Structures are given as structure tokens and as C-alpha cells.
Amino acid sequence: MDSISLIAMASVITAGLTIGIGAIGPALGEGRAVAQALTAIAQQPDESDTITRTLFVGLAMIESTAIYCFVVSMILLFANPFWDYVLSTVEG
Amino acid sequence: MDSISLIAMASVITAGLTIGIGAIGPALGEGRAVAQALTAIAQQPDESDTITRTLFVGLAMIESTAIYCFVVSMILLFANPFWDYVLSTVEG
Amino acid sequence: MDSISLIAMASVITAGLTIGIGAIGPALGEGRAVAQALTAIAQQPDESDTITRTLFVGLAMIESTAIYCFVVSMILLFANPFWDYVLSTVEG
Amino acid sequence: MDSISLIAMASVITAGLTIGIGAIGPALGEGRAVAQALTAIAQQPDESDTITRTLFVGLAMIESTAIYCFVVSMILLFANPFWDYVLSTVEG
Amino acid sequence: MDSISLIAMASVITAGLTIGIGAIGPALGEGRAVAQALTAIAQQPDESDTITRTLFVGLAMIESTAIYCFVVSMILLFANPFWDYVLSTVEG
Amino acid sequence: MDSISLIAMASVITAGLTIGIGAIGPALGEGRAVAQALTAIAQQPDESDTITRTLFVGLAMIESTAIYCFVVSMILLFANPFWDYVLSTVEG
Amino acid sequence: MDSISLIAMASVITAGLTIGIGAIGPALGEGRAVAQALTAIAQQPDESDTITRTLFVGLAMIESTAIYCFVVSMILLFANPFWDYVLSTVEG
Amino acid sequence: MDSISLIAMASVITAGLTIGIGAIGPALGEGRAVAQALTAIAQQPDESDTITRTLFVGLAMIESTAIYCFVVSMILLFANPFWDYVLSTVEG
Amino acid sequence: MDSISLIAMASVITAGLTIGIGAIGPALGEGRAVAQALTAIAQQPDESDTITRTLFVGLAMIESTAIYCFVVSMILLFANPFWDYVLSTVEG
Amino acid sequence: MDSISLIAMASVITAGLTIGIGAIGPALGEGRAVAQALTAIAQQPDESDTITRTLFVGLAMIESTAIYCFVVSMILLFANPFWDYVLSTVEG
Amino acid sequence: MDSISLIAMASVITAGLTIGIGAIGPALGEGRAVAQALTAIAQQPDESDTITRTLFVGLAMIESTAIYCFVVSMILLFANPFWDYVLSTVEG
Amino acid sequence: MDSISLIAMASVITAGLTIGIGAIGPALGEGRAVAQALTAIAQQPDESDTITRTLFVGLAMIESTAIYCFVVSMILLFANPFWDYVLSTVEG
Amino acid sequence: MDSISLIAMASVITAGLTIGIGAIGPALGEGRAVAQALTAIAQQPDESDTITRTLFVGLAMIESTAIYCFVVSMILLFANPFWDYVLSTVEG
Amino acid sequence: MDSISLIAMASVITAGLTIGIGAIGPALGEGRAVAQALTAIAQQPDESDTITRTLFVGLAMIESTAIYCFVVSMILLFANPFWDYVLSTVEG
């Protein structure tokens, strides 16, 4: 097993698991926030503007943690510094 | 075990697990949001338009985390940069 | 263990686990949504049309995550790019 | 350990685990839906037709995820493309 | 370890685990459905016919997932295609 | 490690684990059903006949999943087809 | 490691784990049923006969799953068919 | 590692784990039953005789699952048939 | 690794884990029972004698499962039959 | 790895894990009991003497399971019979 | 496996898992905070300014734990001191 | 790997895990007790003296289980009998 | 694998996991505290100053546990005493 | 792998895990206590002094378990007796 195979394997496996595991929390958190927003609108229809606005700001905050995971996953696939180094040593 | 086998195996296993694990959170989160939406409509039928619209925006946000996983899974299967590199070295 | 055995094994195991794990979340989420829909109908029979329509859109969204898993599972079994490559090298 | 043993073992184990794990979610989800349906009928007997119809559509959706698992399990046992290939190479 | 031992072991272990794991979900789901049915009958004795009928249809749906597991378990023990093939090669 | 030891070990371990794991779900499910039945009788003593009858049908359904496990466990101990084959090859 | 040691070890470990794991579910299920029975008696003292009788039938059903485990455990210790066979080959 | 060491080790480890794991369920189940009994007495002091009697019968049932584990544990330590056999072969 | 080391290690590890794991259940169960007893006394001070007496009988039952674990743990440390046998063979 | 190292390692690891795992249950159980005691005092200040006394007896019972673990941990560190034996053989 | 491969692999895997695991807690915590904020606005619309302001300060605190993980993940990928040292020894 | 390394490693790892695992239970238990104490004070301010005093006695009991873990952890680091023995044999 | 690789790998992996695992608890705890703070403000707007002040002190306490983890993580990356020692031996 | 590498690795890994795992419990416990404190202040603003004072004493108790973990973590990094000994033997 040479360096290229090892780093490629580790990158592939990690890229998938990062977004796979990292999607659980945001999805559950957003589900909870959306669910409560609907209850709140049903209880207080006159405030639906404030509720919706607060909901979207909150969803953006929660989505940000999923996006951190997606960014790391993309970096590992397409801008992986370790892979770039190993390629440069092979091709250099 | 040569590089091709190793990277192919890692890609296959990761592609499946990424979407397999990544589907749990969104499915549960969407189930919760839909369930609460139905309760909200039953409580406040007059607001069913606002509720449904907020629900669909929320579902789209939650679905997005599942789609991140699906995208990574597809990239691993059909646009895998490590696999492309290894193939190019073999065929080059 | 040659490449063919390894990739075949990995594909078989992953194809099964992907849909096996991936069915847990949608099934639970749909169960929750259906259960709440029935409660909502019982509370507000006059809105059963809106409730049922919203339920079916929601179920379709949740089912979509199960279908992502099923698609990946089928791809791994019948349109596996890694398997195709290995076969082509063997037969080529 | 030759290819035949390996692929046969992997298929046997995966076929069982796929349906074994995959039955947990649908069974729990259906149990929840049925339980809530009975509560709903008890609360609103006049709507038992709508409730029962919605329940059966919902159960069909949930059962579909169990059936995906069963289909993959059967494919692995009786229409396994990897097993077919290996047999063809042995007998060919 | 020859092929016969390996496939026999894998079949034995999988046959047991499939039904062992697969019995958890249906048993819990049916327990929930039966429990709620009894509550419903106590609340609305006049609807006990509708409730009982809906319960039995629901139990049949839930039991079906346990039966999928039992079927796969029996296939692995008594109609295992991989075992049949290996026996035929040994005896053939 | 010859075939006999391996298959015997696998059968012993699986026979125990099958019923061991498989007893958890039915026991919990039956406990829930019985518990709710008692609450229902306390709430509606006049319906105790209907409740008890529905309870026993439900318990029979739940017990059936435990019995599937027990049957597989007994088959593995006393009517194991793989063991029978291996014995026949040894003694034949 | 000869056959005798292996089968003896597997039998010892499985016999213990079977009843160890298998006792969790029945104990929790019976605890729930007994607890609810006491609540029911406190709510409806006049029905304590019906409640107690239903409780005992239910406990017998739940206990049966523990007894399945105990039976398998005893069979593995004192009537183990694999052990008997191995002994017969050694002593025969 | 001779047979004596192996079987002795397996017996020691299993004897401990059997009662260790097996004590969790009964202890939790009894705790629940006792807790509910006290609530029931506080609600309905006049029925404390019936409640206490039902509690003790229930505790005896639950304790029985712990005793099964203890019995198997003791058998493994002091009346272990496999150990007896191995000793007889050594000393015989 | 001679027999003495192996059996001593197994005994040490098992003795600790048995009481370590076995203390979780009784402690939680007793905590629940005590907690409910205090609530019951606060609700019905006049019955504090009956409640306290029932509590102590219940605690004794729950404590018994912890004591089973402690007994097995002590037997493994100070009256271990396997250790005694091995010592006798060494010293004999 | 000689006997001394092995038994010393096993003793060190087990001594720590025994009290580490064994502290979880009692701490949670006592936390629950204390929490409920405070609620009970707030509800029924006149019974604070009875409540406090019952609480302390209960805490002593729960603490006893932690003390069992601590005793075993101390025995393993400072009065370990297996370590004493091994030392005696080395120094003897 | 040389130092470069090892440290690169460890960095890749850790970078992914750190943010993957570290995103679960903040996402769930933020989801809970947002959900409760919407309920609070629905209950007390006049205080929506105070509630929103407190929510955003709280979200910032919770997000900070996700950012710690993201920072460590980025450091491991792009400013890894161990990788820098190893590169310097290779190139130096 | 000589005895010194092994015992030192085991001591280091165990010392950390003992207090790491052992801190979970007491922290959660104390959190629960404190939380309930504050509720109790809010409900019954006149009894805040009794409540606070009972709380502190309870916290001391719960803290004791954390202190057991800390003591064992410190013994393993600074008064480890096995380490002392090994050092004495090396230096002796 | 030389000392440098080993210690570097261990430091990288531990630095990530420490903050990754350590962020779960504080994030959930802070989420709970913030959520309850918003409910409290909605219930008692006049006390929003006291509530906000208590909330911030509490958040600081909870954040401190996350900061302990971050500090250890940073020490492992940038002020690791073991790494410093190993470098000094290599370069010295 | 020499002693220095082994002990350094074990210390690094344990130092991180100790505080990483040990931060979960206190953070959750403190979150619960703070959350309840805010509810209590909202219910009984006049007692906010007593509540805040009791909260801070309680937080200090809970924080103490996190500090135990931090102390052990720091000892392992900067005052590790085993590391000191090994260094003294190397340099001595």
C-alpha cells in the first residue's frame, strides 16, 4: 500500500462520513425548529411575520453547521492539501 | 491489493454508507415537521396557507442536508477525483 | 483475494446495508406523520382534504430519502462503475 | 478462500442483515400509525372511513420501505449479478 | 476452512440473527398497537367492532415484516442457493 | 479447526443469541399490552370481556415473533441441515 | 485448540449470555405490567379480581419468553447435541 | 493454552457477566413496580392490602428472571459439566 | 501465558466488571423507588408507615440483585474453584 | 509479557473501570431521590422530618452499591489475592 | 508506511470526524433554542425584541462550540504543525 | 514492551478514563438535584432553609461517588502499588 | 513507525476528538439554558433583566467546559510537551 | 516502539479523552440547573436572590467534577509521574 492509495482511501472514507454524520444533527434541529414554528403560527397567526423571520435566521444558523461539514467534505475531495503534496512528489 | 481495488472498495462502501446514514436525520426531521404541520392545520384551519408555505420552505431546508449526502455519494461513484487519477496512471 | 472478489463483496455488503440502514429513518418519520395526520383528521374532520393533501406531499418528501438509498443500492448492484471497469480489464 | 466462497458468504450475511435491520423501522412506524388510528377512531367514530383510508395509504407508504429491503434481500439471494458472473467464469 | 464450512457457518449465523433482530421491531410495534386498541375500546366501547377490525388489519401489516425475516431465515436454512451450488460442486 | 467444530460452534452460539435477543422485543411489547389492558379494565370495567379477548389475540400475535425465534433456535440445535450434512460426510 | 475445548467454550459462553440478555426484556416488561396493575387496582378497587387475573395471565405470557431462554441455556449445558456427538467420537 | 485454561477462563468470565447483565433488567423492573405500588398506596390507602399482595407476587415473578441468571452463574462456577468432563479426562 | 496468569487475569477483570455493571440497575431502581416513596409520603402523610414499610421490603428485593453480583464477585476473588484447582495442580 | 505484568495490568485497568462504571448508577439514582425529596418537602413542609429520614435511609441503600464497587476496587489494588500469590512465587 | 502517509491519513480522518461529530451538538442545541424562541414569541408577542436579542446572543454562544471544531479542523488541514515539521525534514 | 511500559500505560489510561467516565453520573445527578431544588424554592419560598440544607447533604452524597473515582485515579497516578513493586524490582 | 510519527498521529487524532466530543455536551446544555431563558422571559417579561443576567453567568459556566477541551486541544497541537521532548532528542 | 513513545502516546490520548468525555456530564448538568433556575426566577421573582445563590453553589459543585477531569488531564500532560520516571532513566 503506497502513500497514494492510503491518502486517497482515507480522503474518500472521511469525505463521506463527515457529511453523513454531520447531516444528522442539523436535520433533526431544523425539523424541531420548523415544527415549533408551525405550532407558533397556529397559536398566534398575527405574529406570523416575526415568527417566520426568526425561523429563517435560526435555520440559517443551524444550516451553517451542516455547511461546515459539506465544506470540509468538498475540501477533502477537491482541494486536499495532503493529496496535492503527494501528487507533486510523484509527478515532480 | 492494488490501488485500484482499494480505492474502488473504499468508494463503494463510503458511497452507500454516506447516503444510508445521512438519510436518517432528514427523514426523522421531516417527519416531525410534517406531523406538526398537520396538527397546526387542524388547530387553525384559516392559516393553512401560511402553515403550508412555511412547511415547504422548512422541508426544502431539511431536504438540503439529505441532498448534500446524495451529492457526495454520487461524486464518489461517478466523479471520484482519486479514482480518475488512479485510472489515468494505469492507462496513461 | 483478487480485485473482482473484493469489489463484488464490497458492493454486495454495501448495497444491502445502504437500504437496510436507510429504511429506518423514513419508516419512522412516515409513521409519525401518518399518526399525527389521523389525530388531526379526528380533531378537525372538516379539514380532512387539506390535511390529506399536505400529508401526501410530506410523505413524498420523506419517501425521497428512502428512494435515494434505494437508487444507490440499485446502482451498486446493476450499474456499478467500479465493477464495470474491473470487468473490462479482465475481459478486455 | 476462493471468490465463490467469499461472494456467497457476503451475499448470505447481507441478505439476512438487510431485511433484519430493515424490518425494525417499518414495524415501529406502522405500529405507531395503527395505534394512533385506533385513538382517532375512538375520538371521532363518524370519521372512521376517512381515518381508515388515510391509514391504509400511509401503511402502504411505510411498508414500501420494508419491501425495498426485501427486494434487495431477494436479489442478493436469487438474482445476484456478482454471483452470476463468478459462476459464469467458473463454468464458462 | 473450505467453502462448505464457510457457507454453512455464515448461513447458520445469519439465519439466527435475521429473525432475532427482526423480531424486535414487530413485537414492539404490535405491542404498541394492541395497547392503544385496548385504550380505544375502553374510551369508546360502541366502536369496538371498527377498532378490532382496524387493529387486525394493522397487526397483519406489522406481522408481515416479521414474516419477511422468517422467510429469509428459512430460505437460508432450507433453500439456500449458495449451499445448493456448493453441494452440487462437491457431489457432482 | 475442522468443519465439525466450526459448524457446531456457530450453531451453539447462534441458537443462544437468537432466542436471547429475540426475547427482548416480545417481552417488552407484551408488557406494554398487558399494562394498558389493566388500565383499560380499570377505566371501563363493563367492557372487560372485550378487552381481555382483544388482549389475548394481541398477545398471541406478539408471542408469535418470540416463537419464530424459538423455532429457529430449536432447528439450529436439533434439526440443523448443515450439521446433518457434515455428519453424513464424516460417517458416510 | 481441539474440538472439545471449542465446543465447550462456546456452550459455556452462550449459555450464560442467552439467559443474561434474555432476562432483560421479561423483567422490564413484567415490571411495567405489575406497576400498571397496582395503579389500576388503586383506581378501581372493585375490579381487583379481574385485574389480578388478567395480570397473572399476562405475566405468564411474558415469563414464557424468559423461560424459552432458560430452556435453551439448560439444553446448552446439559443436553447439548453437539457436545454429545463430540464426546461420542472421542470415547467411541 | 490447554483445554483447562480455556474452559476455566470462559466459565469465569461468563459466570460474572451473566449475573452482571442479568441484574439490570430485574432491578429496574422491580424499582418501577415498587415505585408504582407506593403511589398506589398513597392514592388508595384502603386497598393497601390488595396492592401489597399483588406487588409481592409480581416482585417474585420479576425476581425469578434474576434467579435464573444466578442459577446459571452458580452452575457455571460449581457444577459445570464441561469442566467436570475435562477434569475427568485429566485425572482419569 | 500460562494457566495461572490467564485464570487470574480473567478472574480479576470479571470480578470488577460484574459488580461494576451489576450496580447500575439496582442503583437506578432503588433511586426510582425512593423518589416515588417521598412523593407518596408528601401526598398521603397519614400512610407514611405503610409506605415506608413497603419501600423497605421493595428495596431489599432490589438490593438482592446487587448482592448476587457482589457474591459472584467475591467468589471469583476469594473462593474461585478454577483458581483453587490450578493452584492444586501447581503445588500438588 | 510475564505473569506479573499481566496481572498488574488487569488489576489496574479493572480497579479503575469498576468504580468508574459503578459510579454512574448510584449518582443518577441518588440525584433522582434527592430531587424528588426536595419536591416533596416543597409540597408538604410539615412532613419534612419523615421525608428527610426516609431519604437518608434510601440514600444509604443506594450508596451501598457504589461502596460495593469501591470495595472491589480497593481489594484489587491493595489486597489482590492473585497478585499476592504471584509475588509469593516470585519472591518465595 | 512512512511518516508522511501516516500523519496525512490521521489528519484527513481527524479533520473530517472533528467537524462531523462536533456539528451534532450545536445543531441540536440551536434547534432547541430556536424552537423555544418561536413558542415564546407566540406567547408574548410584545416581548419579541427582547426574545430575539437574547436568542441571537445564545445562538452565538452555541455556534462558538461548532466554530471551535471548525477551527481545529481547518488547522489540521492547512496549518498542521506536525505535517509542517515532517515536510521540513523531508525537504530540508 | 517491558513491564514498566505496560504498567505505566495501563495506569495512565485507566487514571484518565476512571475520572472521565466517573464524572458523567455525578454531574448529571447533581444537575438534576440542583434543578429540582430551585423549583422547590420557587414553589415554597418559606421552606428554603430546609430545602437548601437537604440539597447540600444530598449533593455531598452524590459528590462522594465522584470522589471515589478521583481517589482511585490519584492512587493509580501517585500511589500505585503495582508500579511501586515494579520500580523496586528494577532499582532493587 | 518511529516515535515522531506515533506521537504526531496520536496528537492529531486526540486534538480533534477532544474538541469534537467535548463540544456535544456544552452545545446541548447551552441550548437548553437558552431555550428555557426565552420561555422565562415570555412568562415574566418584567424580570427579563435578572433572567438575562443569570443566563449569561450560567452560559459562561457551561462554556468553560468547552473551553477546557479547546485548551487541551490547542496544547496538544501547539505546546505538546511530549512532541517537544521528542523533537529535542532528534535535533539535539 | 520504545517506552518513551508508548507512554507519550498513552498520555496524549488519555489527556484528551479524559476532558473530552468528562465535559459531557457537567455541561449537561449545568445546562439543566441553569434552565430550571430561569424558570424558577420567572415563577417567583421575589426569591431571585435565594435562587441565584443556590444556583451558584450548585454550579460550583457540578463544575468540580469537570475540574477533576481537567486536573487529571493537566497532570498527565505536565506532571506525569510515569513520564518523569522514564525520562530520568533515559537521561540518567
Description:
The structure is a homo-oligomer of 14 chains of 92-residue chains. The mean pLDDT of chain A is 90. Chain A contains four helices and no strands. The two termini of chain A are 20 Å apart. Chain A is 89% helix and 0% strand. In chain A, helix 1 packs antiparallel against helix 3 (48-78), helix 1 (3-22) packs antiparallel against helix 4 (81-91) and helix 2 runs antiparallel to helix 3 (48-78). Chain A is mainly alpha-helical. At the B-C interface, helix 1, helix 2 and helix 3 of B face helix 1, helix 2, helix 3 and helix 4 of C.
What does this entry show, briefly?
The structure is a homo-oligomer of 14 chains of 92-residue chains. Chain A has 92 residues and is mostly helical.
